[in-house]
Amino acid sequence: MFEEIIREIEEISKPRRISIQIPLDDKGFYDRLCPNPECRGAFKILFDDWGEKVSQERAYCPFCRHEAEADQWNTPEQVEHIRSAAMAEMSRLVQGALRRGVERTRPVTMGGGLVKVGMSLSYSPGHVPAVLPATASEELRQNFTCESCKCRYASVGAAFFCPACGHNSATSCFDTTLETVQMTVASLASVQSSLEQSTGADTAKNVIRQLLEDQFARLVGAFERVNEALFDKLPTASQNPRKGSVFQRVDDASNLWNQAAGKGYDAFLSVDELRRLKLQFQRRHVFSHRQGIVDQTYIDKSGDTTYTVGQRLVVRESDVTELVSLLKKLTDGLRTLVL
Asked: Could you give phi then psi for residue 151, rounded to 5 degrees?
């Protein structure tokens, strides 16, 4: 009497493809996550470009340029969404097979006389798990278009490589970073007002402070990458190898450019502007490596005597906008050396 059920189960056990929809954000961007365990950087890419510009054999991480096949970039939420959708589809198939098998199975009666044994099958559908959509991540604040293949992608903070072709987009990324930082600073008042209503004045103040401090690392990181990209275009670059994170050190970087191209940072910034640039770079170092606590090294290298050892740096909006202005002026000058 189980032949019909067995036949139905065998039918649904055959390999099959199912279509699973992965939600996009309101601009049509698709959440991606670098599979490199040393990176795990989160970014977005326009869904159309992921299908049309990214090959199945290779995609690139915008942060570390890790390469992997296109099916390796799902976020944990997307993996769970796919698993849940597959389980839900399997549940529907199994329940349908059982229902059809039961409907085609006739009741069986054995024995006679005083004792009769009857057997029949009945089936009640079980619970089919609901498939909750993978939550699209918060809209990312920097949008990029690859200079080479025109792939459109986005990230929080600077991203340097195109997910589709791996092109180093450090120069365009730098310009986008400056614009984004300026917009971030300009919106801080409204952000703080909103935070005060939802989290309270103290928390809002701390968030705004952290946002301002984060811009130093963001700007210096983007500047370091654009320096590397520009410097490598020099005909004499191979004769003047970079040592370590040279472009995080103002004097060393200026000397390197002077050796390779005949002009250093002082060709584009005044003495006072160079002094302020060094100060802001030292502040970035303290925020990144000492949680903002001043040490003697900071005082000696920056010349900032307004602090004593053990105090914590206080950053203002004007400090961030000044760093934006200095980096833009300097980078515009360096670009003239590689045209």
From this structure: -65, 140
Residue 28, helix vs strand vs coil: coil
Q: Is residue 200 left, alpha or beta, with left meaning phi > 0 and alpha meaning psi from -120 to 50?
A: left
Specify the 3-state DSSP secondary structure of 144. strand
Residues 6+ away with beta carbon under 8 Å from 52: none
Q: What distance in Å separates the CA atoms of residue 212 and residue 209, rounded to the nearest whole number?
A: 5
**Residue whose token pair is 């159309």:** 48
Give pLDDT, residue 118: 45
Tokens read off for 54: 């990214």
- Give me the pLDDT at residue 239, please: 93
In the 8-state DSSP scheme, what is residue 33?
A: E
Amino acid at 6: I
Dihedral of alpha carbons 75, 80, 81, 87, sign:
positive
- CA neighbor of 293 nearest in space, from 213, 180, 220: 213
Following DSSP, what letter does each residue of 289-331 receive, concatenated? HSTTB--HHHHHHH--TT--TT-B----HHHHHHHHHHHHHHH
pLDDT at 97 (0 to 100): 60
Q: Looking at residue 153, what DSSP letter applies?
A: E
280-307: pLDDT as tens digits: 999 999 998 999 999 999 999 999 999 9
Q: In whole angstroms, give the CA distance from residue 261 to residue 268.
A: 13
With a cut of 50, which residues of the chain have pLDDT below it? 1, 108, 110, 113-140
φ, ψ of residue 297 in degrees (nearest 5):
-60, -40
Cβ atoms of 139 and 203 within 8 Å: the answer is no
SS3 state at 80:
helix
